[in-house]
Amino acid sequence: MFNRVGVRLINQVRNASSKTEIGVVGVPFEKGQRKVGVGNAPKVMRDAGLINSLKQIHDKIDVKDYGDITYSIDHDISNAVPNMIMYEHMVACAKALSKQVTEILNDGRICLTIGGDHSIAVATVDGHIQAKSNVALLWIDAHADINTNLTSTSGNLHGMPVALLTKELSDYWPYLPGMDWQKPVMSIRNVAYIGLRSVDSFERLLIDNMGITAFGMEEVEKFGIDQCVHMALEKIDPTHSKSIHVSFDIDSIDSLEAPSTGTPVRGGLTLREGIHLMEVIHKTGRLSAIDLVEVNPSIGTKHNVDLTVSAAIHIIAAAFGYSRKGLRPKVDDLPIQTPPSST
Ligand SMILES: [Mn+2]
């Protein structure tokens, strides 16, 4: 039975989990690539119980759902830039999303953005930088997403966000009409990749020549996920003072465990590694924004979709402090009258 010391210990544990305020925004955007369905992910994730899963992590979680991003396009800039498909859509959605992310952060909440394809991260990272200038970015992905319109073989914008965000790449772009609000102020020194295993040749050249911090699957294999996350954070946030942004592409997870995604790649992170990565980042206490992108509920069987959505929710929950060890009971719930059964 719990004695008074036991109750005191429980109170200490309870108080140790600090108040966490989360702001959720859905981005039903899929025009950064060519496959239909990824825009339905916010609805499917909410229908699968995302918001309740967050509320149940611990009793000091407060969740506000800001709804979905809407936007209207400027037809004058369609086809304005070569080899950038549906450019005018990305521009309009990104502008609205960046504002929303800034607002959520200024409300004192951690921003959880549910994509949508990965092109939306141009906006989430920009909105984060607007609110908190000193940002470190972890890009968890099978792909490097650092093509420009000149190096991309597809013209898909979801392969370009890192190149749009970083100042070292800014000289490689033509003038981008409608994007004047977005300043590529982030240094590539503040970006680290984890999970890479499908990197285009120009992307590899950039990563090598610019010395970009990148833990591909070889490094995950060699050092283990725990070391990789710690080393990545040391590289991009050596003073342990930056506001951390995690842009998590579900295709970083092996396609056996997260099959419903547009560009699946085998040999990826296990769900366990994805969860552990987020647990490490949670423990920094400096996580401000998460993107969870590229879940496509139109790909695969219902079982495939269920697997992928539940993997995504597990990863998000870990980022907000879900404990695989279990949490002790709240003091109010203690069975004072009824001792716990020994069986
Ligand atoms: Mn990606």
Helix content: 25-40%
Task: Please report the distance between the alpha carbons of the first and last residues.
Answer: 14 Å
Name the CATH architecture. 3-Layer(aba) Sandwich
Strand order of the largest sheet: 2-1-3-8-7-4-5-6
Spell out which ligands are present.
Answer: manganese (II) ion
Catalytic activity: L-arginine + H2O = urea + L-ornithine
Binding site for Mn(2+): 118, 141, 143, 145, 249, 251
EC number: 3.5.3.1
GO molecular function, one term: manganese ion binding
Q: Which features does this protein show?
A:
arginase activity, manganese, Ureohydrolase_dom_sf, eight-stranded parallel beta sheet, 343 residues, alpha/beta, Arginase, 8 strands, Arginase, Chain A, binds manganese (II) ion, globular
Can you lay out the helices and strands and say which pair or pack?
Elements: H1 4-16, E1 20-26, H2 41-47, H3 50-55, E2 61-68, H4 87-106, E3 110-114, H5 121-131, E4 135-140, H6 161-165, E5 191-196, H7 201-210, E6 213-216, H8 217-223, H9 225-236, E7 243-249, H10 271-284, E8 287-293, H11 302-319
Parallel strand pairs: 1-2, 1-3, 3-8, 4-5, 4-7, 5-6, 7-8
Helix pairs in contact: 4-5, 8-9, 9-10, 10-11
Bound molecules: manganese (II) ion.
Residues 118, 141, 143, 145, 249 line the site of manganese (II) ion (MN).
